[in-house]
Amino acid sequence: MPTTAADFRDWARHGQTRVELALQRLLPSNEIAPQRLHQAMRYAVLGGGKRVRPLLALAAGELTQANGARVELAAAAVELIHAYSLVHDDLPCMDDDVLRRGKPTCHMQYDEATALLAGDALQALAFQVLAEQRLARRAEDQLQMVALLAQASGSRGMAGGQAIDLASVGKSLTVPELEFMHIHKTGALIRAAVLLGARCGRGMEDDELASLDHFAKCVGLAFQVVDDTLDAEASTATLGKTAGKDAERNKPTFVSALGAAGARDLAQELRQSAYAALDGFGSAAQRLRQLADFIVQREF
Q: Considering the entire predicted model, what is its pTM?
């Protein structure tokens, strides 16, 4: 498999297009009642974002020789959950933000009630996709996929991590405490993306699944560490969302705990740990390694 940076960019762009087309098909049309809700759903999902989670699912699917159409659906389901979480996170009762992916947040473009319902509907649609479509070779494997995404989204995953985050404003957290919070808030859905993509393909041994899960845990934490660094150092125009919001709200971050240089060092350590977790997979895991590089090295 070619491993040049240009080759990876081409692969990533192609993967983003595949997922965008799948999402366009899965989301209800603007013309179907209730039109305003469906417009808000499509506004929140389409035409923006780096699609890191879907790309991780696609790369894991390549590792297990999964059917491409199946992995696209699993990747889309994860992105629908991610999009719902962003809509809700931006609401005034949460992070109260007005900019997301370079455009007004969903509640600013529509209204708070519509944004709340759009997030609810996106979450429901994600599970509809997993339940209606044939994604795994065995029914019991697909049922595990549904359970995996549910846990990653709920109180022991993303929602629980957000609750910890809200309760931590104004507090000083240690690095282990920050890691615990973000293993849930950010990392749970990234781990789900990798494992859902992998489960669309050949059966995997328990040790293989454990290695993939460890890889995903490392890149999930690295993603948040880099996010914290970019929030402190990049501009709003570069990020496509309000920069400096963490410091303004006195939120504990890896930068506040370690400093910017220490946070960057931690991201590099996590990348090396992610690499090590893939040692047993050889060249089949090259796309996952490249995504680990992208997550750590990204500048926007």
A: 0.93
Core vs surface per residue 252-272: b (16+ CB within 10 A) or e: bbbbbbbeeeebbebbeebbe
3-state SS assignment for residue 100: strand
Residue 219 has a CB neighbour count (10 Å cut-off) of: 30
Is the Cβ–Cβ distance between 71 and 61 less than 8 Å? Answer: yes
Whether the CB-CB separation of 197 and 234 falls below 8 Å is answered with no
Range of the domain at 210: 5-297
| CATH code: domain of residue 69 | 1.10.600.10
DSSP label of 93: T
List all residues 6 or more positions away from 212 whose beta carbon is below 8 Å from its beta carbon: 60, 63, 194, 195, 198, 204, 277
- Which 8-state DSSP code applies to residue 110? S
Q: How many domains does the chain have?
A: 1
Alpha carbon distance 25, 4 (integer Å): 32
pLDDT of residue 1: 47
Longest dimension (CA), the chain: 51
Q: How far apart are CA 180 and CA 229, in angstroms?
A: 18
Q: How far is CA 61 from CA 36, 68, 70, 71, 230, in A?
A: 35, 8, 9, 6, 30
Q: Give the pLDDT mean for 89-96.
A: 93
pLDDT at 300 over 60: no
Nearest by Cα to 263 from 291, 240, 237, 296: 296
